[in-house]
Specification:
The protein is α/β, with parallel strands linked by helices. The protein has eleven helices and eleven strands. Belongs to the tetrahydrofolate dehydrogenase/cyclohydrolase family.
Amino acid sequence: MDSSKTAMPCAFQTMAFKPFLKQTKYLDVFRLLSSRTRVTFITRRCVRPASCLETNTQTKKILDGKATAQQIRNELKTKVDSLYQKYAMRPGLAVILVGNRKDSQTYVRNKHRFAKEVGLESFTHDLPESVTEAHLLELIDELNQDPRVHGILVQLPLPAHISTEKVLQRIHVSKDVDGFHAENVGRLCTLKREPGMIPCTPQGCLELLDRYGIQIQGKHAVVLGRSNIVGIPAAMLLLRRNATVQICHSYTENLAEEVSKADILIAAIGKPEWVSGHWLKPNSVVIDVGINAVEDWSTSRGYRLVGDVRWEEAYPRVRYITPVPGGVGPMTIAMLLKNTVKAFERLSQS
């Protein structure tokens, strides 16, 4: 939702919260996440257990993103080995990292590790934060022409002096494994055209639904959030699958009433436990994209991760729900690898 309407302040941005961040080593949070997932910190005293999943032995309602992502990586490894036998070449993923943000460095390491696991070639380009926009664009031009590279990912965020939009649009559409290029966005939004590269997080959401045999066609789907990274592409993917789709945002009136109509809810607003479980339609399916760290001194790290949906209220009412962590986050990286293999196949056949 729009930041101007956020009801819960992001204490991550306040001076008062810095001692807490140092004490808890908050950057450990990002070891579990794709950097494309919004992370919000709020201050809250909490006596609940560190993980709701640890206190609930039932798992039949859980959409396990971690296990599903591992299954996908196993499938990709088999496919990559087969492609190597055919082309004597492996898909190559190039990641550009600007600056020395610890969270970004952690994400890149995880990406590199999983890429190697499935047999991809992984190229990392570390640039100083002071790098000029012109130099970064030159590097992208070189990677666009490099036959070893089939996917290019620019790690976000970029320094303020560099135009993110200009950089993302400079990546050749065939190597845009994040799915952010204008042509890929346009193809996704044109219903009778085959989509190009699909953004990783929303693609991971629908992959989970498919892997668990959850029907999409004819269902009423509500998407909370309208970001270009998750909300809008998720809505378009659901529409392509013949769901009746509604996007809700910070100006939506009677939000609880709209959510209560959802057979499938995708929550991607970045507000900790914002969605009450009492809003949910009984036996609905909930995909919780939110990753939020809240203060919890009962844990060794001093914080715990929660989603945008109140787990304890939601779990008894739903048919399926993704956990946080272990739901959408692992699927995002799996879809990045899948897109890279897809790009390799298309480029090899062209």
